[in-house]
Amino acid sequence: xxxxxxxxxxxxxxxxxxxxxxxxxxxxxxxxxxxxxxxxxxxxxxxxxxxxxxxxxxxxxxxxxxxxxxxxxxxxxxxxxxxxxxxxxxxxxxxxxxxxxxxxxxxxxxxxxxxxxxxxxxxxxxxxxxxxxxxxxxxxxxxxxxxxxxxxxxxxxxxxxxxxxxxxxxxxxxxxxxxxxxxxxxxxxxxxxxxxxxxxxxxxxxxxxxxxxxxxxxxxxxxxxxxxxxxxxxxxxxxxxxxxxxxxxxxxxxxxxxxxxxxxxxxxxxxxxxxxxxxxxxxxxxxxxxxxxxxxxxxxxxxxxxxxxxxxxxxxxxxxxxxxxxxxxxxxxxxxxxxxxxxxxxxxxxxxxxxxxxxxxxxxxxxxxxxxxxxxxxxxxxxxxxxxxxxxxxxxxxxxxxxxxxxxxxxxxxxxxxxx
Length: 420
What we know:
The protein is an alpha/beta fold.
């Protein structure tokens, strides 16, 4: 039976903020992974991006303004603990306890290190002390203590003491090594007790990938692929796709992970086109490139649309365009606007269109040399290196796989000093 995960913050989308965007992404990731997900917020119904399977619980008292408890939070903001504090805590404790019923892991974003709603923080501290059936993770984005902006809220007494020292029954994580240094200094604990779980970026959404191309992105693990090559070309002989096949084989031989995406399809009514297509598939098998060379006509049930193609350009690294003959070569311009490394055959019309902005391939030349030249050119592109780092380290699927899932399923691997 899948675990139930609660994600807790003062507010959720459509209230705009960095943490709100992050918890929205976490909810979608965990839902896609098969968990039951519950978002608990003081305001915001969860936004239009959340799948219908994600349950949202709104508790007005836990918003950072206090909602119905506004006067209590105002007094706390002035550094005073009002006589109504205890009643307010009991009210929030009761509502939170109900919301957490059946929850296996509760991820609390910022509420254990920020002063914005100390009624909620106190209620959670009490719940954690008595509730052993739920694991609690304090997801730390920001810290009141040590931040000069919040100097007037840095009091040494209770309940402010709850956000300046670790609370029993709670694991803490941080979103960066900088936050790890900040919290380690405040809590006076070893760094290993404060693992870093980075924020991430939704690469398919950023690239505006269509659903079909997004599916390809995930299935082929393109976040971890060193070279994504693209050929927007029909499967006809003059496109010279066999040369591209040999370049891909040479790159693979160099130990590089590569995917070459060919967008076009053969003409089923043209025997010559179908014969060429069969020849290419045979060549792919002979060279051991079944994984590396992707014919989209085999993957998509309908032809590639313009929106698909625009997304493919955005996520690719190299245009591979080894045609024998062209009248113009529009993909060369499209690839240039998309900042791809342009690799073209050394024919007059493509040289005319590309000028000096492309790498040329002499037909009949040494394709191993071409592969090495491609890698040399890519290594010189600092933007390419950083782009690959973002995709392989900070894309949400990689953050989830390497950091979030272990925090949920194998806490001992994330918090080595943690007692079971």
